[in-house]
Every structure is written in structure tokens, then in C-alpha cells.
Amino acid sequence: MDGEFLEEVSQGLVYETLRTYNRLPFAAWKHYERWNRSLSFFGLTAPITFERYMKILSEGIEKLEGEVRMKVYFSLKSHKVLVVFQPLPRANVEEGVSVKFARYRRIPDLSTPPFLKITGRTDIVLARRDIKDCYDVLIIGASGQLCEGSFSNVFLVKDGVLITPSLESGILDGITRENVIELAKSLDITVEERIVQAWEVFTADEVFLTHTSMGVVPVRKVENRILFEEEAGPITKTLMENFEPFALNRKENWVGAL
Amino acid sequence: MDGEFLEEVSQGLVYETLRTYNRLPFAAWKHYERWNRSLSFFGLTAPITFERYMKILSEGIEKLEGEVRMKVYFSLKSHKVLVVFQPLPRANVEEGVSVKFARYRRIPDLSTPPFLKITGRTDIVLARRDIKDCYDVLIIGASGQLCEGSFSNVFLVKDGVLITPSLESGILDGITRENVIELAKSLDITVEERIVQAWEVFTADEVFLTHTSMGVVPVRKVENRILFEEEAGPITKTLMENFEPFALNRKENWVGAL
Amino acid sequence: MDGEFLEEVSQGLVYETLRTYNRLPFAAWKHYERWNRSLSFFGLTAPITFERYMKILSEGIEKLEGEVRMKVYFSLKSHKVLVVFQPLPRANVEEGVSVKFARYRRIPDLSTPPFLKITGRTDIVLARRDIKDCYDVLIIGASGQLCEGSFSNVFLVKDGVLITPSLESGILDGITRENVIELAKSLDITVEERIVQAWEVFTADEVFLTHTSMGVVPVRKVENRILFEEEAGPITKTLMENFEPFALNRKENWVGAL
Amino acid sequence: MDGEFLEEVSQGLVYETLRTYNRLPFAAWKHYERWNRSLSFFGLTAPITFERYMKILSEGIEKLEGEVRMKVYFSLKSHKVLVVFQPLPRANVEEGVSVKFARYRRIPDLSTPPFLKITGRTDIVLARRDIKDCYDVLIIGASGQLCEGSFSNVFLVKDGVLITPSLESGILDGITRENVIELAKSLDITVEERIVQAWEVFTADEVFLTHTSMGVVPVRKVENRILFEEEAGPITKTLMENFEPFALNRKENWVGAL
Prior knowledge:
CATH topology of the largest domain in chain A: D-amino Acid Aminotransferase, Chain A, domain 2
CATH superfamily of the largest domain in chain A: D-amino Acid Aminotransferase, subunit A, domain 2
CATH class of the largest domain in chain A: Alpha Beta
Number of domains of chain A: 2
Structural class of chain A: alpha+beta
Number of strands of chain A: 13
Order of helices and strands of chain A: HEEHHEEEHEEEEHEEEEH
Strand content of chain A: 25-35%
Helix content of chain A: 25-40%
Radius of gyration of chain A: 18 Å
CATH architecture of the largest domain in chain A: Alpha-Beta Barrel
Oligomer: homotetramer
Largest sheet of chain A: 9 strands, mixed
């Protein structure tokens, strides 16, 4: 930790988090595109080609066993690229997880573009310090709308309809989120992307999270209020069961990977 | 730059910026207190005593010549303390500087406490990338109120009254700001700390910035509109001339330093 | 309905709603003061003395039987005062009522002072049109905070503590609300006046409304979610039972009336 | 002024303001449509046909001499329609008018739809009481954006481009505003409808208002800051001179009138 390091920190690093399925980087093209969108916000162009990006990922995956999580960073100061590889963390979430609401709100779009995945975003930093014995915290937006978890997106089910905060709610357009929306549509489940009020989690029939490492994660408790006693609701379960086969079969998720 | 480093970055570093006058650290006690306030927000207590803090500063100052700028960092992950010493940057600002408004707004209090000096605050990060050929950018709050520069506080003069955004505007309580307020009061200038609308910079008689390195800095242009032709207004000039003698004479600024 | 009338409408009328207990106007002084506060916002002074005000109320009450509801209006255009007398509406609310959230938000303080009781406030106008088969609608503020009903204040009970939106939430400081707070304190119930999030009605143990006509009204359903099956919670019931004796005994409520 | 009247007031009246040119109601169809849009917001359909509407207007115009101003009201309570006819007020505005900023903000869209022309909107009521010796006041929105005057729309000219707050700024889509935009386009002036910050009136080259009675009104002073010394800027003058011939020639403005 020195002066140079501190300048890197102060200017921030743009990042993306990926995982493998069957030891291949999943949705790598989408993550690459999203990473470049963040960079282009700063007037920067892709520092490495997609081919080079895939090569770096493949080489890193080789050095570990099992499924792998990758974080790809780009320093806004030095323009260096760094990738961190770890064994994919796993958790048993089938019985449902506990979440609560974050104490600090999502930073509004007027203050920071919601799609900007950059180290040091204080809404994320502060939310993560609050997780404690919850699985994740749900971040609420400036007008009380539900946004997203600190590392997940959130979905509700109400009267058979799948509901999730729209992009204009001020969220990151998660790649697992998009896959779940497409999965639901393929199963003829009506999907509503709209502004969702935080209180709607308590009038919903089912609530679940989505994120890269775990796919679909049923929520059993919100702010200590139990949402289901025995097992996750039927739509959550259907989506959990079908997520992996669906995602693995979608060609879009394997662009450039095979 | 490695994985360890990236975890430090992601969790952020709390920092303070100080300077010397006559090779002694100015207002060190206030900066120490403010740094601890940021830490206590995270449930942390002072990692080092004030005596130790002063010793580290003195030793670092010894190694450089002339006046010195110091940045004191505390890593929220590793709990390490790091101090960076540099020659105090100087600029010729007597003829007035140009500023503009930041494109992104101050992060609202509901999203992040305004007093939190932490690396990666995106309102600051984004504002600084926008400075370009200006001296600083003025950051506006969620409701259109004037907040502060990316590294300075801002003051207006209107009909002989000194006006500056109040703490409830969502600003950092700058130490130079506080010294200037006290100086003005000692000169029988009426001071108003209140919500100030961004447009008031254009109906004001005088505008100036304050920050640690330079004290009082007259503003000559805002968004390319010229505020004064020949020289800074009379109250700005009075405060510029009297700032250093006043600040150097205030006992509060030298607690523990002599 | 003519041109003159329409000018009155366009400029608005400041009003207050009172009721009698035992055929005497309850808390008349507080209502008179609050009415004058609204008037003074417009730079106007009390158009009639408190004695005159009481006389008008007494004469109107004489003409009706039973308990009476009074609305006292002041036209901002013609400066006329008008009082409308009606039999006090009664409803059986002991088994609890249904409420929902208003579709439009409370007008923020920056747009209209929350204490301003004026005809045509669109947050109230729009909320009332939405009541339909509910008893009242709960109006939410700009940042998602719980404010008040369209004609009532709202209270929660959580872990034995009585919680109600603070004045800074952007509410009208209801006179029944104030009497209930004082009653709770007299019963050694801890009272928290604070910013309350809308979603907290779903994690609360009890929810009730207060308003002039009916005192304490237990809430059984919010947005079709049932809060209690059999009967209102213990603190709600205690406050319901004790409200009338307490309010009738408080000297403050009878200033000038006897 | 009685109880019945007060109920009408409390529920509000939806209205539109029109004028004649050459004793014919101008843009009557657009005003009729806009009035119905407000009504449909309340789930109501047009209470009278356009033919009937035109007949009422024509009959009223007959009874006055010269050009006429008409206000068409619809009571949300009694569903009565009322039209008030007055001689068209005229003012000499060629030398430019003074405006200032309203002390209270535009009611945000989440609280009240911006297109709703209803008596008692407190943003309008409070703004009008503040006009005093100004011609109009400029109402600012919740985030500091410029919205509109209390009875006018506002335009800026900057570097030859005509700039006006977009509908998403939270404004009423004025009919004169729309005619001026079309006029400018017909003259090959670039038009930007966008979010405009309040402070931009001070960096603009020209500022003017538009409203039904007077068309294009140059602004000479904002908050006592003089924008032009001698005469209105060239684009303002061009639009002033061409407005009437252009508007009178547009077929859209005379649907059903001739």
C-alpha cells in the first residue's frame, strides 16, 4: 500500500464478475460488453480485444480446479487490467435465505449512472458492511422503490406474475436477471419490469434473488418477517429447477466461448 | 496490483488531507477528529493516538523541504494506516479562477453521509474527471442546491453578506471553511450558513472557494460567465489578505502541535 | 357557480375540522391557533378573535342535535369566514378497518408546507378519490416514508413501542395524534416520533389511525394483507379505551370552552 | 359561499384558458383535447361534445367586444361546466418583463401529474401570490430544473439554439409553447427540448416567456439581474414578430372553428 496504489484507489476500478459452468466462462461476451460500456462512460475504449479477454480467462481457469469465479478489473488511473480467479463459492440456499433492507439508499441516477460497476460506489460499500447474518441486503432507491441486492437482483411473484424492478428503477442490468426473465417468458409466465415499491415484498406471494454465483435464490425472510414456512413458492421452484438447463442451452450465453 | 489490493480498494479507505504552515501540521487536531468521526461511522475507534499521529506527520515532514501536503489514509479492510507526503502544490490564483458545475450531483445524505471522506465516492470521482481546464467544479445537490467543489468549499458575497452552504446542504465541513467563517465574524462581516441555490452564484456580487492548500481563491468565471473584470471583490480580497495571519494566530489550529 | 366563485376556488380556502364532545367544541383553541398559523403563512392575521370564533361555533352547534362536526373555512380571496356544521359522522370501527397506499405521493415540503390545510392540495384531493371501499388511504412521501392518511394520522406498534411519523416526515400535526401521544406517555408507553418507512406497516405488530371524528381506529388490513385475525392488538385497544376519558380530562383541550 | 360550494372547491375544478384571435377561439380543439385528458385522468369522459363546446364559446364571445379570454371549468363534484368570458387582458411587454424564481417548487410528478390543470394546485397558488411587481415567477422542479411560469412557459436562447424545458421536466405542454416550437423549426432555428437547469437562465443569451394572452414575451430581468439593456435579442424578436402570422395560418389551430 503506497502512494501509487492510493491514486489507483482514488480514481476507481471498473469491474465485472463472471463464473464458469462446466469450466467455461459463462456469458463472457455480455460481461465484456457491459465492462466496455462502463469504460466508454469515461471516454475509454476496450483495453483488450474479446479474444485476448477470453484467453486470459481460459488460462486462469486452467490453474484452478472445479468451477471458478473471475473478477475482471480495469484501473481508471493506470489503465491496467487485472483478473482475480477464485473457486466458485457455493452455499446451500434451497431452504431460502434471509434479507433485510439496506440503511443507505441506492445512489440516484443524477449522482452516478446506475450501470457503473466501479469499486468504491458507497451505496454498495455501505450495504455490504450491513449484511452481517443476512444473505444479502436489499437496496432501496431515492423515492422508496426497490432496486437490487448488494450483489443480486430481486424478483417478486404476485398472482402468478413475475415482477422485477425495471432498469429505470436505478439498477444494474444483471446477466442472471436477464436469463431468468427469458426463462420465465419461455415458460409462459407473465413478466412485469416496472417500478416496484419496497413494501411490495410484503404483499408478494414469493420473493427471490438472482446472481451469478448461485442463479435463483429463494427468500424466506425479509426484515425478520417469514415469507414461507416449508418450502419456496411454486414459481420460484420452477425457475430454480429450470434455470441451469435453460441458461446452458442459450446460444447467447456462449458467444465466443466454444 | 493484486487480489489483496483489490479487496482494500473495494472496501475503501477513509482519508484526510492536511498541510503545513511554517513546516508544522496545521489544524492537525481537527483533522484527526474528523478522521475519527468517519471511522466511528463504521464502528471503529481511532487506530492510533493523536500523539502517534503527530509523530508520524513530523517524521514525514522532516524528509521534505518547504511546505508539505499530507494525506492520511485508513484502510477499512486491513485497518492499516498510510500517510503520503508531497511538496505543497501552489498555484497563482490571485487573478481569479474558472469553475463550472459538475455533471453529476452530490450523493444525497440518504445514500451516503456527506461527512464521509472515503476513496471512491463517485460524486467526487466523477467530478474530478470533469475538471479539465477549470480550477475546480461545483457540485450541486439533489434538489439543485449548491454544495461544494470537488476539493473546496464555496462562498458567495451578496449585499455585503457572506453566504455559504450550510452543513445540511450535504457538504463536508471543511476546516478552511470554518476558519474563513470565524475570520469574517472577527471582521464584523455578517455570515449566513444556509441552503444556497446553484443559480445564486450568478446573482452574487462575489464568489470564492476555500481549501486547505490555497486558503481563499477568488472565482472569476462560472460556466464561462465572467464575474469580475479587473480584480476580485472587496470582501474576497479582505478575506484573502487576512486569512493566513488569522488562521496562524488561532490557538484551535495548533492544538498539540507546539 | 360563477366567475366570482371561481376566483375563490383558484386562490383556495384555509380550513380546520373540529368536533364536539358533550356538545362542546373540542380542542377549539388548538384548532384556532393552527388555522391562524396557516393564515400567517400568507401574511394574514386572524380575521376573527377567539371569542368570536367560539361564539360562531356555539351558535351553530345549537341548531343541531347530538355531536357535531364543524369545518371552519377562510377564503384567501374574499377573506370571508364560513363555518359548515354537520352531525358528527360515526362508523363502527372496533373490528378494524382496511387501508391501502395512495397512488400519488405527499407533496414535498419544498413544494408546499406540510402544515398548510388548504382546499385543493392535490395530494389530498387525489388520495380521497382513491379511497373507494377502504376506510382511508395512507399517503407516502417523496422518499418512501410513511406520512399520514388523507384525513388521519397513522401509528405503528413494534415490540411494545408506539411509533408515528415525526413532523419532519411531512405531515400535518393532528390534534388527535398529539392527544394519543400524550395518552401513551401517561401510560408509560415509549413513543418514537421518527421517519417511518412505508414497508414498516408490514413488520409492525399493530397499526392504527387517529382522527378527529373517531379517535383511535385499528387497522386490520393494509393492501389486502391481514394484520390481525380476531381483534386489535393490546396497545391499540388500551389506547382506544382510554382515549376519550384522557382527552376529555386534559385542560389544554378545553381552553376558552367552559 | 355555502356548504355545497365548499364541496365543489374541495374536490377541485379542471380548467383550460383560451383566447380569441379575430374574435374566433384559437386552438379550441387542442384546448378541448387537453381538458378531456385531465378529465380522463379521473376516469371521466367529455361532458360535452366539441360542437357544444364551440357553441358555448361562440355565444359568450358575442356578448363582449374585442378579443376575449375564456376559462372553461369542469367541477369534479357536480360535473357542471362553467365558462367565464373576459376582455382579453393586454400589456405592453415589448421592452421586456421582470421575473423571479418561485419560493416553492413545482409539485413532482409522483405527487401530481404535471399536465393536470386543476384549481388549487398549490405550486401554482403559492407562485401566483409571489408575483407582486414581477410579470410572472419561474417555478423550479424538485431537482433544481427549470419548469415553467405560473401562467407561462419559458424559453432560452444559447448560441443560436432555442432551448425549452422538455415535457419530462414536469411542465404543462402549453399550446403557445407548441406553436413557438413549430414556428422556430419553420425558420430553421434548432430547438432543444430537454432538462434545463434553473441557473441556465443566467448563462443564456436570451430568455422569453410564452402564454396564451400575449404570445412571446421577452424577459429583461431575472432576480434583478438585467439580461439585456436596450432591446430583446434577435431570436426573441424574430419569434415575436412572426408568432401571430404563423399561428393564425396554421390549420391545426383552427380545427372546427371556421
